[in-house]
Amino acid sequence: MIGWILLGLIVFAVIAFVSIYNSLVTLRENVRNGWSQIDVQLKRRHDLIPNLVETAKGYISHERGTLEAVIKARQQAVNATSIKDKQEAENFLSGTLRSLFAVAENYPNLKADTQMRQLHEELTSTENKIAFARQYYNDEVNRLNVAIQSFPSNIVAQVGGFQKSEFFGIAEATERDAPKVQF
Q1: Chain Cα centroid distance, residue 178
Q2: Measured in whole angstroms, how far is the alpha carbon of residue 112 from the centre of its chain?
Q3: Could you tell me if residue 56 is left (phi over 0), alpha (psi between -120 and 50 degrees) or otherwise beta?
Q4: Rounded to an integer, what distance in angstroms lies between the CA atom of residue 14 and that of residue 157?
Q5: What percent of the chain has pLDDT over 70?
Q6: What is the pLDDT of residue 163?
Q7: How far apart are CA 136 and CA 154, in angstroms?
Q8: Mean pLDDT, residues 128-144
C-alpha cells in the first residue's frame, strides 16, 4: 500500500514539474514574441526615417545638425544588438525625432508638404504601434518574472535554467516628466 502511495506521489510530482516547466516555456516564448513585435515596428521606423530626412533636407538645409543627429541616432539603433542597447538607442532616436519635428514646425512650407505630412503620420502611427508592442512585451516579461520567482515554479525555473527578462523602459528621466504647456 505504501508503495502505491509513493508511486502516486512521484507520478504527481513529475506531472506537476512537467506542467510548470511547459508553462514557463510558454511564458518565455511570449516574451520572445513580444520582443519580435517590437523589432518589426522598429524596423519599419528605421525604414521611414531616411525618407523623412530626405524630404526635410530641401526645406531645412541650414538645420544640418538636427538632420545629422537623426541619421546618427537611426544608425545607432540599427546597429544595437542587445535589448538594453536597443532600448538606449531607440530612446535616443525618439529624442532626435522630436527635435526634427520641433524644427519642422518653424518651416510652414515643410509642414504643408504632402510627403512630409504623410511620412509624419506614418511615423506617428509606427510610434503608437511601438508603444503598444512595448506594453505587450513588458506585460509578458512581468508574467515570466513573476512565475520565475513564485513557489513552486521558482524551483522548476532554477532547474530548467530560466532567467528573468529585462523590461523595456525609459532611459531618460526627463521622458517621464509631464510636458509643460504655456499659453
Answers
A1: 21
A2: 31
A3: alpha
A4: 15
A5: 90
A6: 94
A7: 23
A8: 93
The SS3 of residue 102 is helix
First to last CA, the chain: 83
Check the CA dihedral 42-44-45-49 and report its sign. Answer: positive
Which of helix, strand or coil describes residue 61?
coil
Distance CA 159, CA 19 (A): 14
Give the CATH number of domain 2-134: 1.20.1440.20
Q: Write down the H helix ranges in 58-170.
A: 64-79, 83-104, 108-112, 114-149, 153-160
Query: In this structure, are residues 103 and 73 in contact, taking their beta carbons and an 8 Å threshold?
Result: no
Residue extents of the structural domains in the chain: 2-134
Grid cell in block for residue 160? 530548467
Burial of 106-128, coded b for 16+ CB within 10 Å and e otherwise, reads eeeebeebeebeebbebbeebee
Give the residue carrying C-alpha cell 525609459: 170
Total-model pTM: 0.72
pLDDT at 107 over 90: no
pLDDT for the residue numbered 171: 61
Phi, psi (5° rounding) for residue 83?
Answer: -60, -45
